[in-house]
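To whoever is on call:

I kicked off a structure prediction for a single chain this morning and the downstream step that reads the tokens threw a length-mismatch warning. I double-checked the sequence; it's 335 residues and nothing unusual in it as far as I can see. Pasting both halves so you can look.
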Amino acid sequence: MGRYIHDQNKVAMTHESGTYSNSSGAAFWIGQVTENSIDDAENLIEGRYLGTATRSFSTMDQGPRDVTGTLTYNPQNFLGVFAAIGSVTDGASGTNVLHEATEIQTDEPQSAFTSGTLCPPRSFTLEDSKQTPGTGANFIRTINGVVANSTEITATQGEKITVSTEYIGQTLTFSSGTTTSITEDTTTPYLWSSASLTLDGESIETAKEINLTINNNMEAPHYLNGSRDISTPFPGNRENTLSVTIDLSASDGKKLYRDLYKTNTEFNGVFDLNQDVDATGSQHAIFTLSGCRVTSMENPSANEGVTESTVEIAYESLSAQEWTSSEAGIKYNPW
């Protein structure tokens, strides 16, 4: 019996439509996945009670089952991020396809593709597989009902863009058979060199790291419904933030600190990832932040090096657009 070596690990994603927690259609490539960490907690309930004549626990009963995890990848498209934002539309099929994402409130259907009285959010199925030689020897965990809890895009100088999504799932099923086949997307992943940031109409020229966070604070209730698994998740308060680390310059310092932070001025921002290579509109994402306010700005004075500043920004709402070429142009919606 062989060991599970990293080169045979694979993560595949499938849309869910029709009913929450039920996959639909073929699995697809997520991006250049670097890690998928799953926490499937059985949450056993320890029993201690009188009459057992022991200081140790007496029983271990099955408790509420919780499935959570963190998926980290270098994006070749932003399908997963768009699903975290809310409502997503696809443009007409063709060479360069436009996808658009906008936030939705709880008085609107959370997903246009699943039904249910509890108004399920946009969801996916994840298959995490580890393969090894031998019949029936694979280690496969399939999570249904996956929804994005908190998603972060990170751009760091000299590196690939990274997306990290903390997710909640409803059920986890183990199997040891054949893993699902997926086709690798050979599109170049988004790189730091494609990223630029504009705040209040002015370009931030010395940004070293940008972290855009979409936190939906999903709630996963365990209702009294005869099941150990969670019921349909629902969103809590949004906590959306933008963190920017810069080499402090005179122009950015006065703009960000004096004009925006100290005056509590509201402004808008644009995080632009323009990686058009094949043609205009072949790989380009724009995230538009509205109702921004600088909540903190650290400006330490050190005895060497360039002065570095970290700017924390809360934003009220987010919308996004992305153009994908035919190679990366999988539909962001199942229908």
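Update from on-call: the warning came from a stale cache, not from the record. Cleared it. Sanity check on the structure: The chain is about 5% helix and 45% strand.
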